[in-house]
């Protein structure tokens, strides 16, 4: 897929969507992001979060979503997203890795 054609109103892509764009399996893509220092988990089984340097470089963002539990309690959950710029950088990193 041509990266120039990637357009979204918010410019953000979920990790599974980004994996598909970059033609990788989602599980493999998430492992790649963890190995390359793009995302981490605060606790085992917790949500993936972007490292601050990736947010500052505008490669990733971490918007929150608010859910309401069955008991009526609101939960705010961070959600790691990759920007269009981040997709471009990752595409280059994946190409470099596949050459070695």
TrEMBL record:
InterPro entries for this protein: Ant_C (IPR005039)
Taxonomic superkingdom: Bacteria
Pfam family for this entry, one: ANT
Residue ranges occupied by any Antirepressor protein C-terminal domain in the UniProt entry: 3-96
Entry GO MF terms: DNA binding
Name the UniProt record assigns to this protein: Hypothetical prophage protein
């Amino acid at each position: 897929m041509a990266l120039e054609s990637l357009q979204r109103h918010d410019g953000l892509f979920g990790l599974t969507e980004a994996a598909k764009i970059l033609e990788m399996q989602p599980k493999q893509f998430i492992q790649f992001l963890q190995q390359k220092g793009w995302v981490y988990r605060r606790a085992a089984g917790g949500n993936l979060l972007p490292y601050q340097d990736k947010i500052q470089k505008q490669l990733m963002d971490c918007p929150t979503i608010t859910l309401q539990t069955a008991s009526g309690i609101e939960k705010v959950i961070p959600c790691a997203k990759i920007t269009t710029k981040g997709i471009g950088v990752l595409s280059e990193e994946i190409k470099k890795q596949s050459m070695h």
